[in-house]
Design a protein that fits this description.
Elements (H helix, E strand, L loop, with lengths): L1 E5 L3 H12 L3 E5 L3 H8 L10 H11 L2 E4 L2 H7 L2 E4 L14 H13 L5 E4 L7 H16 L6 E4 L9 H6 L4 E4 L5 H10 L1 H4 L5 E4 L1 H32 L3 H9 L20 H14 L5 H24 L8 E5 L14 H11 L3 E5 L4 H7 L4 E2 L3 H5 L4 E4 L11 H7 L4 E4 L6 H6 L3 E3 L4
Parallel strand pairs: 1-2, 1-4, 2-3, 4-5, 5-6, 7-8, 9-10, 9-12, 10-11, 12-13, 13-14
Length: about 450
């Protein structure tokens, strides 16, 4: 089976590489010549463990290729995945202009039956729009070609995307009722996963589209819940980590996403919660839990900024702050909605000097905030610092040489915004210590 993946961003590139790993012939399409040229040279534009090797291996084998020619890729494929960007608008709604442009271009060049699949996260009803946009272009051509539209949302975690694709918790396939052909084609494409007994959820288009928002909104709510609880813990002297363990041992709740910190970030949770809330408002319904989740997440970032300011005795101007971790989570270079970026900008705005280090996101961070001093490692960042702020829980920050760090710093203050350390060993090493919710 031949597959085309339109869009070589995070979702598109991972999807194309993983399908080619199944033995499928995949062509990835993008409009940016420099991006396609780089991919052909084996240069991967994102940091994702294992992706570079997978792309190189399947490119060498001839199963994975990259092109600027959408029409050629479409007409060689049976299944076409649309994986272009769906950015949030100023009001939180989802901008579907890239999806529309691709759908219309597909309609202009279609020459035989295809299954067009939305892989990007899109609002409910987008598949209906995709069908209409393609049909409009076919009507202009006077064409009576038949095609199918499907929804196959992705549930990829940055930093673990390949494992999530190859060993997913579930695969959701949304099609029109009665469209047995499209459903059979997609199940055949995912056939290697049947060997792993992966659960498949076959449903209609609107349910498939809404399922991604439902999952992400619920996970974001868990994060905001534990962060709200951390405020109570700090007020009454409780330990949010112990409470999270009590909750997580209840099989009805589960332990994942119950880690207090500076709030969620990245490309999915912020955008998807805003989109879900905006979509509900458009239907005349307030999605109250999601609205509260968004407010708590923003407030948690502000609390983290005030925590740093308070640790510096309210005197930020002229102080040097070492920020360890800039990406929104470990094992990715993604800075979209990263809590560290908000924290750094707020401290710079108050006159602080920032020395920062991140294992993967340095180049992007430097372009985004050139006022930061970017350092080669954590210890260089700590030189002369009045406070150390751990914002992203990269593994290399879990076992810092605390005596060495103490010698490098002007003032031994540790603000552990991910609760990586236990208080007593840090205090014993001569530091003042602040965690979150304990």
């Amino acid at each position: 089976m031949n597959v085309a993946v339109i869009g070589t961003g995070y979702v598109g590139l991972v999807t194309g590489a993983c399908f080619s790993e199944f033995g499928v012939q995949v062509t990835c399409v993008d409009k940016l010549p420099e991006k396609i040229d780089a991919l052909r040279r084996g240069e991967i534009p994102i940091y994702e463990p294992g992706l570079e090797d997978m792309v190189a291996r399947n490119t060498r084998s001839g199963r994975l290729s990259f092109t600027l020619e959408l029409a050629e890729a479409v007409n060689h494929a049976l299944v076409i995945f649309v994986a272009v960007g769906t950015p949030a608008g100023p009001d939180g709604s989802t901008d579907l202009s890239f999806v529309e442009a691709v759908a219309r271009e597909i309609g202009c060049c279609l020459t035989s039956y295809k299954v067009i699949v939305t892989k990007s996260t899109v609002p409910v009803g987008t598949s209906d729009h995709v069908r209409a946009w393609i049909q409009e272009e076919l009507d202009r051509r006077g064409s009576k070609l038949r095609f199918s539209v499907a929804s196959n949302p992705e549930f990829l975690r940055e930093g673990a995307a390949i494992g999530d694709f190859m060993r997913p918790d579930r695969v959701v396939i949304g099609t029109d009722p009665g469209d047995d052909q499209a459903r059979a084609i997609l199940k055949d494409l995912y056939r290697p996963l049947y060997l792993n007994e992966t659960p498949f959820v076959e449903t209609n288009l609107h349910t498939a589209e809404l399922s991604k928002y439902a999952a992400n909104a619920f996970l974001a709510t868990k994060i905001s819940f534990i962060n709200e609880l951390s405020v109570l813990c700090e007020t009454v002297g409780g330990d949010v980590q112990a409470i999270a363990r009590v909750m997580g041992l209840d099989n009805r709740i589960g332990k994942k996403f119950l880690h207090a910190g500076p709030g969620y970030g990245g490309s999915c949770f912020p955008k998807d919660t805003l989109s879900a809330a905006q979509f509900a408002r458009r239907l005349g319904h307030e999605f109250s839990i999601v609205e509260a989740t968004i407010r708590v997440n923003q407030r948690q970032r502000e609390r983290m900024i005030e925590k740093v300011v308070s640790a510096l005795d309210g005197e930020v101007h002229g102080k040097t702050v070492a920020v360890l971790g800039l990406s929104f989570k470990p094992e990715t270079d993604d800075l979209r909605e990263a809590p560290a970026i908000d924290i750094v900008r707020a401290l710079l705005g108050r006159g602080a000097k920032i020395r920062a280090y991140d294992p993967a996101a340095m180049a992007q961070a430097g372009r985004m905030i050139p006022e930061m001093v970017l350092c080669k490692d954590a210890y260089e960042a700590l030189e002369g610092a009045d406070a150390m702020v751990i914002v992203t829980e990269w593994n290399e920050f879990r076992m810092l040489d605390l005596p060495r760090a103490r010698e490098l710093m002007a003032e031994p203050r540790m603000l552990d915004l991910r609760n990586v350390y236990k208080r007593d060993p840090v205090v014993a090493a001569g530091f003042q210590y602040w965690g979150v919710g304990r």
